[in-house]
Amino acid sequence: MRNKYVAFPYVGWMALFVVAPLIVVVVYALTTRDGSLTLDNFSSMLQYAPVFGRSFFLALLATAICILLGYPMAYYLSRERGWLRRMATMLIMLPMWMNFLLRTYSWVFLLERNGLFNSLLESFGLPKVNIIDTSGAVVLGMVYNFLPFMVLPIYSVIEKIDYRVIEAAQDLGANSAQVFRRVIFPLSLPGVLSGITMVFIPSVSTFVISRLLGGGKELLLGDLIEMQFLGSAYNPHLGSAISLVMMVIVLVCMGIMNRFGEGEEEAMLL
Amino acid sequence: MKKNGVVSRLLLAVMFLFLYAPIFVLIIFSFNDSKSTAVWNGFTLNWYVELFQNRAVMSALRTTLLVSVLATAIATVAGTAAAIGFYSMRRRSRTACLAVNNIPLTNADVITGVSMMLLFVFVGQGLSAFSNWLNGLQWVEDANLWFDFSFSLGFGTLLIAHITFDIPYVILSVLPKLRQLDPNLAEAAQDLGATRFVAFWKVVLPELMPGIVNGMLIAFTMSIDDFVISYFTAGSQVSTLSMVVYSMVRRQISPEIKALSTLMFVAVLILLVIINLRQARQESAAARRRHAAARQP
Fold first, then answer.
1. Domains delineated in chain B
2. Which residue of B21, B23, B114 is in closest CB contact with A229?
3. Does residue A144 contact residue A203 with C-beta atoms inside 8 Å?
4. Which of these, A110, A118, A205, A236, could form a disulfide with A128 (CB 3.0-4.6 Å)?
5. What is the ipTM of this complex?
6. Is the pLDDT of residue A111 over 90?
7. Entry pTM
């Protein structure tokens, strides 16, 4: 049942609403308010270099933590049998059905000065901790929100590993550590790579998490862009330039990473 | 593989606690007899009653549901058609199309939102200039016409944005099903006298159904949960639930919002449990049938 013409409406749609917006961004980034060509938008971005640095650092940190927490979680889930395994995907996806902003903001209730976590610490006689409105809280928010995007691809890749491959390794004398290191881990790498993409990109560009949990004191890239379009520092030309640079940096990073992964694009979607 | 020991079970439990703790807090405090989220003042269902009288929240809920349902419906049909089209293309054009299709998926939400907003504003300005120009023409004046093509951000642009980021999910979940499809099936149906349309409707579509449903669910989840792209493309007149929550944060999250989220969460939970139970029952029925068939001489 082949018919390529049914795709044409969507190709037109993509041209209008996927490609054209990006062209408009490029045009805005290269012009001033009165419409003349300029590169000033890019040169005036230099003052925001610390913001770029902080955003990429926090996003990398969050991604690393997501791997450290998400990989064991996916691995152990895939070893479960019975109801937990049948419900695993559902259990990981379910939190996403609580409104994203609410579930992020809920951490404020948990962690604020007189919040639940601190009262718990107090009842054990431990000192209170101040997490809210720090960079630590921002990283926590990123990890919390995007952890499912790390666990799901890894889980679905591990789950599909042919059990006979593992048995073969055991028959050939590998102990369980060797089986993991030489068989399961290499085979699960495509899942890890798509997990990294799916965690890193939303982390580096978020403005919601930094505003809710970071107190809006330390700007991230997302805040910077949002401010240029809907916020106090209205300047869509500068905002477009920042978006463009961020997009290029992210694309280059992902391109380099996918070289290692031999282009496993299909693994991206569950 | 070995089964999980106590330590790994414990780790799983802690991880799930991490994922669910904030949600439990919200649910519990939606029953709190005070606006506070730190102090428990006793149980009440008041917020659930007041929820339905809160105009702003109810109108945002209507907008959210309407835009999600419409966008998902359109994206499911368009995405399935597009997937079939992509699958039928030659390799090179298919690769190009898939690369563009991937842009909304891999691009940061902020950039998707911002770029669509710029486009809408840009086109809106262009169209209003164009209508001004038309209205200034002599024959238009003579014919007593008045053109106004200008538009501003609102429900229409919000819907377009949602459709745009929903379709790629549908395509990516339908394409693998197309690859698994046996091309002989449709031909066999046509040999047996089915028209092309009937062969597609009765043979191909049911085979694709799991992929389509999966894509539809992902698209709906994304639409309901989206904040960033809506925030940039909805303008100031229309609000989705997320936008209402965002405007409340930093002042005070109203307890009605917690109540509403609890209701939505429970609704989804029930739906998923039903789906799961049905699947489990179907699986065990299939296993019984296989078992019975195996025992036949």
1. 12-44 (no CATH), 59-120+158-265 (1.10.3720.10)
2. B114
3. no
4. A118
5. 0.85
6. no
7. 0.86
